[in-house]
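Hi,

I'm pasting everything inline rather than attaching a file, because the server keeps stripping attachments. The sequence lines come first, and each chain or strand is labelled.
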Amino acid sequence: MSEAVLTVRNLHKSFGKAEVLRGIDLEVRPGETVALLGSSGCGKTTFLRCLNFLEKADSGTLAIAGQTVHLQRAHKKDILALRRKTAMVFQDYGLYRNKTVLQNVTEGLTVARGVPKAQAVTRALKSLEQVGMAARSEAYPHELSGGQQQRVGIARALALEPAVLLFDEPTSALDPEKVQEILDLIRSLKDTPTAKIIVTHEMAFAYECADSVIFMDEGLILEEGAPKDVFGNPKNERTRRFLERFTADKAPEYFI
Amino acid sequence: MFDASYILTFLPKLLESLPVTLGLVGVATAAGLLLGLLFALARLEKLPVLAEASTVLISFLRGTPVLVQMFVVYYGLPLLLQGIGIDILRWDKIIFIYITYALNASAYFSEGIRAAVLAVPARQWDAAAACGLTKGQSYRRVILPQALPIAIPSLGMTFTGLLQDSSLAFSLGILDVMGRAKTLGALTSRALEAYAAAAVIFIILTLLSNAGFHTAGRSRKRKEALT
Ligand SMILES: Nc1ncnc2c1ncn2[C@@H]1O[C@H](COP(=O)(O)OP(=O)(O)OP(=O)(O)O)[C@@H](O)[C@H]1O
Ligand SMILES: [Mg+2]
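And the predicted assembly:
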């Protein structure tokens, strides 16, 4: 088993008086796909945003690809360096509205990573090819459908070749028929060396695509393990109840 | 009585002073935009001391008549700077006018810019940061380009106001379009016609400016569909 590319120890985060994350520990190995589940408001988004410092955690340690910081006293420089080892895909795509598809993808490469323009364009086109959007590289985000925008969002993240790729409900804003398309695309990334943490409510996807599933509740990780263990035999009562809600109406064949 | 034909004879004379008015408005716009951007950033980024100083200065500039500001700058600034050993008493009057209008416009520009930056969705900041852009890079490459089209109508209004307010510069004896109209009127005893001619010029300038900002705002918005 290879060494972890991402290690989180005892991460805490409060908004005012409300403690939203109450001591999270997590290790993710290179190439691993982790599905992060939990009911609304349990802190999934906040946790993901703490990993790339879109939120500043109050305490704990975070190590990504060999660089460790104490979250209490993370300096600007450390934050930037750590951030540049990650990339993020947003629920609402978050494409730069003033930039074309191609510019959306090259921006982080040229500006943040210092990749020369020509090289950045080559890399960007390769990523756009991978998500099937190379033909639309001159379009502006508002000219694209939600599914297409999310493809670009994924290409933008992939082009950065991050050590850790964070997905926050990448299909929640999509039409039902587009959801599968994007999930298939994410599934196709499975054998890349990038570690992937995916917040999702798509249980079937988590079951077949993730290497490991995490169930979060009220700011804590309650259960963690291989999908067939967490889904098939949840140890925690709350996990069981959470999963029942999904299995009751969907009754997927994998539980039979 | 009122003889409209004088308007036509006055117009060319007043137009000779148009460069003074346009120069005044141009300098104030350029310097005001730059200052306004700095004030806006100080407040947006909550820079210690600078943010508070900007807030106070802006509310002074927006809360007092430009004529008062002109006299404060013209009579007050030399005294103030004299106190720290800088002598600007012999500066040309027009410099004080430039400073006044630049400061005055900066207050309004700054509020327009600040509101526009706040109108850019927070997700754009997230996306820029998540891609590894620094704060400065995010501003320059993502946020400000999106804020600009949002700000254009408000910047346009400030610009038009500046155009009108510039006519007060004659109070310090500046021979802009308005100053010229005043002297022409006194010289010919045709004050009403002289001011009417000045009004024609200001109306045309305002219409041109409105049209300019309108097209600028529309074309940028259409290209990027920011609304
Ligand atoms: N910026 C903020 N300020 C104050 N409270 C916040 C902020 N962001 C999140 N919270 C609160 O923190 C808690 C966790 O929110 P979070 O968005 O992480 O949940 P989530 O698990 O992602 O939920 P969902 O599945 O609905 O996306 C919620 O109670 C939320 O109201
Ligand atoms: Mg969320």
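The first helix of chain A runs from residue 44 to 51.

If the labels don't parse on your end, tell me and I'll reformat.
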